[in-house]
Inverse folding.
């Protein structure tokens, strides 16, 4: 550090100091991603193989008392559940950090104002606060989702108790929606931190927003792609992501009813009579709809994230604004 | 380079438009500060001093009116403006040396590492010490080093000396003054302790109740005001009375003479503190000091 080598005039090195200031968070995130990735690799490799072998032994056994490695089956199932929830927790982890530490604490303690009175505009400062974390979050969460998908796929057709593709935790931990949700959590946290209510309320707001958004995505998910319909003479069963089910009347009309199935309670029998039921129908998404659903939901969450980003920039611009500037 | 470092026209800032506590922190402020001056922004707590400095630093946008900083709208000259906030925010997890290195990285092309290190070194600061371990006065020193290291043309200091001991205060004031003298830096510093600024400042901006009460060259302001004593029944017209008090048969007043004063009055030049206190005690006294457009006018 000498005066003899002045930095060449150019862009301020905002990113270098972002990394320095959030080094503990970056190390923690790296540790989390590395650990969960390691466990997922273990899950998809040795654990899946052991569980599959145990299932093979169990399925081949005709005797009343069978010898098979039950511990291996349970281990795969337990580790699968833990890692699935670890992957699903990523958006909340990111949102909490972004709300509390990324902008909230800086605004609260005044260091944001310190940064804004260097040779950097608040908008550039905010852009640097979003860009690198967004890349790190995308890379980390993306890796986890990919490895989770591989670990889940490793059990397909081999492990009888493997979660179906439409089991909600599996569905989300297996696809890019979680990455988009993590980015939404990041931006929501950064925006909440700018609102000058303190870092703790910002943390709570970011967590709440991410939770609500996820709930909204779950509600919307079945309707994000055209559904398939199965009409049967038998009560509806079968896999796939359910949308709706009910009875088919003599005229071929569908009457939605999620409770009756093939129940023969008085209420249900009355219903069948009233509509002259001749069969059942079930609206659902088959496995082939997995990617369309995932990608549509991801696109929607990313669009919302972009909107939030715009909102945050506008807020900051208005607050610190250059009214007479070129932009609006 | 413009002649006016800071110029406000009908400047107003209202906080919390939606909240019930909504109120104007500043209203209808017009003044001009010639470049190269050392200006004291004086006023009671809550007068709007910090708001004015934050507006000048481009940290917040005016609600109405305009504020021109170094010839452009506030916020467009960030690289040329230094700012030290009242609570001296710094990143607690960085060391002193890192903080100064960050100053260099965030102010490319302007940073004077040697000057910044000299200011920090003056306080026997260990460069490896973390900011969170420093005393209030040491943090002030680092914050000043950071602000001066970027070689600002305009330096905005909000209560800069509040938590410094007399020795450090004297030394750092000396650093500021030599900066102003060497580089022609315009310095604007706020305080509610007038005595703190009296020796170093040559320009005054008195703010009370969110309005400019007095603005101008300190010597000129003192010259245009007079402390007078006369018989109790004296009519002070046509002079502008800032404050008057009758004790027994004696009338003491601080006035802005509009004409030569009668010879039988005892007159004196007020001190800066007397002047400031008189205006603050009498909110209804007419604001003095028309917005100066140039150094020549403001001195006149």
């Amino acid at each position: 550090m000498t005066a003899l080598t002045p930095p060449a005039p150019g862009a301020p090195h905002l990113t270098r100091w972002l990394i320095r200031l959030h080094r503990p968070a970056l190390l923690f995130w790296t540790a989390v991603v590395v650990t969960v990735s390691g466990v997922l690799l273990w899950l998809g490799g040795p654990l899946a193989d052991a569980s599959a072998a145990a299932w093979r032994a169990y399925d081949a056994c005709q005797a009343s008392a069978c010898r098979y490695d039950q511990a291996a089956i349970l281990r795969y199932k337990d580790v699968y559940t833990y890692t699935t929830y670890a992957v699903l927790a990523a958006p909340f982890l990111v949102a909490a950090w972004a709300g509390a530490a990324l902008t909230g604490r800086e605004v609260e303690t005044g260091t944001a104002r310190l940064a804004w009175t260097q040779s950097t505009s608040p908008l550039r400062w905010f852009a640097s606060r979003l860009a690198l974390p967004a890349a790190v979050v995308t890379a980390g969460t993306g890796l986890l989702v990919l490895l989770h998908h591989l670990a889940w796929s490793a059990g397909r057709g081999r492990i009888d108790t493997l979660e179906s593709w439409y089991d909600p935790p599996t569905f989300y931990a297996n696809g890019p929606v979680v990455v988009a949700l993590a980015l939404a959590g990041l931006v929501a946290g950064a925006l909440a931190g700018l609102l000058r209510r303190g870092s703790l309320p910002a943390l709570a707001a970011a967590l709440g927003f991410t939770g609500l958004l996820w709930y909204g995505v779950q509600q919307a998910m079945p309707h994000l792609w055209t559904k398939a319909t199965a009409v049967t003479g038998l009560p509806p069963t079968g896999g796939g992501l359910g949308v709706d089910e009910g009875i088919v009347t003599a005229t071929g009309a569908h009457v939605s009813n999620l409770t009756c199935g093939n129940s023969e309670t008085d209420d249900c029998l009355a219903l069948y009579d009233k509509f002259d039921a001749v069969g059942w129908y079930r609206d659902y998404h088959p496995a082939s709809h997995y990617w369309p659903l995932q990608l549509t939901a991801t696109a929607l969450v990313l669009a919302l994230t972009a909107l939030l980003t715009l909102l945050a920039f506008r807020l900051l611009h208005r607050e610190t604004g250059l009214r007479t500037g070129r932009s609006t | 380079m413009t002649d006016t470092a800071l110029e406000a026209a009908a400047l107003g800032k209202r906080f919390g438009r939606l909240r019930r506590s909504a109120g104007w922190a500043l209203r209808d402020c017009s003044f001009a500060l010639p470049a190269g001056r050392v200006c004291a922004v004086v006023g009671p707590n809550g007068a709007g001093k910090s708001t004015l400095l934050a507006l000048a630093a481009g940290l917040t946008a005016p609600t109405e009116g305009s504020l021109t900083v170094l010839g452009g709208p506030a916020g467009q000259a960030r690289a040329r403006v230094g700012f030290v906030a009242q609570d001296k925010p710094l990143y607690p997890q960085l060391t002193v040396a890192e903080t100064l290195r960050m100053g260099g990285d965030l102010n490319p092309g302007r940073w004077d590492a040697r000057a910044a290190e000299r200011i920090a070194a003056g306080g026997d600061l260990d460069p490896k010490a973390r900011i969170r371990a420093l005393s209030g006065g040491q943090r002030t020193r680092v914050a000043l080093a950071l602000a001066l290291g970027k070689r600002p043309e305009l330096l905005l200091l909000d209560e800069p000396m509040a938590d410094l001991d007399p020795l450090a205060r004297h030394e750092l004031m000396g650093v500021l003054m030599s900066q102003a003298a060497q580089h022609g830096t315009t310095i604007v510093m706020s305080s509610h302790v007038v005595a703190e600024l009296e020796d170093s400042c040559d320009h005054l901006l008195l703010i009370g109740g969110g309005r400019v009460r007095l603005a101008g060259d300190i010597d000129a302001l003192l010259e245009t005001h007079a402390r007078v004593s006369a018989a109790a029944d004296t009519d002070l017209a046509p002079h502008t009375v800032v404050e008057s008090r009758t004790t027994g048969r004696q009338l003491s007043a601080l006035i802005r003479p509009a004409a030569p004063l009668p010879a039988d009055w005892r007159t004196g030049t007020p001190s800066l503190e007397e002047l400031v206190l008189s205006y603050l005690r009498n909110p209804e006294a007419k604001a003095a000091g028309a917005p100066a457009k140039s150094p020549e006018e403001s001195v006149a």
